[in-house]
Amino acid sequence: MNVKVAKTAGFCFGVERAVNKVYEEIEKSEGKIYTFGPIIHNEEVVKDLEAKGVSVINTEDELKNLESGTVIIRSHGVPKHIYDILSEKGLKVVDATCPFVKKIHKAVSEESGKGRHVVIVGDPTHPEVLGIMGWCVTDNFTIVKNAVEANELIFENNMKISIVSQTTFNYHKFKEIVEIITKKGYDIFVINTICSATEERQKEAAEIASSSDAMIVIGGKSSSNTQKLYEICLKECANTYYIQTLDDLDLRQLELLQNVGITAGASTPKKIIEEVQKRCQKR
């Protein structure tokens, strides 16, 4: 079996930075360490951190009940008011928000501050999008997750609109949504905030899938960018499989196949990718 692993598979810059910050804090901190939400969308990483004493805070109430310790802001970022709570309580804060997400926070704050209506393209339930919403100066924003919702958008004729995107959104779908809104004739300012690493990862995954008999996509089930990789690969290769770890791999599905491709989401550790690769090569 010929096994080709995408060069872009695995930790992106923002994820690696966030995970490293937590491990660094474990080494030097004497007090309790918390992350506000899972630091990244990978269960194996979160389990390892929990084994080392790092607890996950999932709600604002939990945060408000803390009396001491270090709180690490997840890579996806959080709304502005979370920083306000942390400041009021005087807790130590380590900000592991991806720098590319930080740029979106700054952009929506500035654009909404100018009185422009902000359109956020992305999944309304995703923590990154929830964080972006929380940096708009007012409630003058709309979240759009697909072309159908873009077609249904109706604003006043004199409305000035600024469009941003979740960093891991599908680039081609983002372009489609922007084109739909543009045709409506509004005053539009587009800020392409899709991470360049995401674009490269999606493009390479499609190329490998198109020339493979089977495609394996590795990543956490709650990872937005991994889910999008799976969708992209499935369009190019009908035998595309989404797994979280080596335990999920069923080699019987790959029997008699000659070329197998492997890619992985931005929050998938290198160790898991290598384990899957080695198992395939031993088949």
Can you describe this structure?
The protein has 283 residues and is an alpha/beta fold. Helix content is 42%, strand content 19%. The strands form three sheets. A four-stranded parallel β-sheet has the order 1-12-10-11, with helices on both faces. It has a four-stranded parallel β-sheet with strand order 3-2-4-5. Helix 5 (99-113) packs parallel to helix 6 (127-133) and helix 9 packs parallel to helix 10. The radius of gyration is 20 Å and the shape is flat. The model has no long low-confidence stretch (mean pLDDT 94).
Topology:
Elements: E1 2-5, H1 13-28, E2 33-36, H2 43-51, E3 54-57, H3 60-64, E4 70-73, H4 80-89, E5 92-95, H5 99-113, E6 117-121, H6 127-133, E7 141-144, H7 147-152, E8 160-165, H8 171-182, E9 187-190, H9 196-210, E10 214-218, H10 224-236, E11 240-243, E12 259-264, H11 270-281
Parallel strand pairs: 1-12, 2-3, 2-4, 4-5, 6-7, 6-8, 8-9, 10-11, 10-12
Helix pairs in contact: 5-6, 9-10
Quick summary:
The chain is α/β, with parallel strands linked by helices. It is built from eleven helices and twelve strands.
Radius of gyration (Å): 20 Å
In this structure, how is the largest beta sheet organized?
A: 4 strands, parallel
Structural class: alpha/beta
In terms of per-residue confidence, which ranges show pLDDT below 50 for 5 or more consecutive residues? none
The fraction of residues assigned to DSSP E strands is 15-25%
Order of adjacent strands in the largest pleated sheet:
1-12-10-11
